[in-house]
Amino acid sequence: MPHVSLFRLYSLRAVYLIIVVGLGLVVWPGVIHHAQPWGLSQGVVKCMLAAFSLLCVLGIRYPLQMLPVLFWELTWKTIWLLIVALPAWQSGVVDEAIMSTTFECLFVIIIPLAMPWKYVYARYIQQQGDRWSKLAAHGSQA
Question: Nearest to residue 116, comparing CAs of 41, 66, 47?
Answer without folding.
Answer: 66
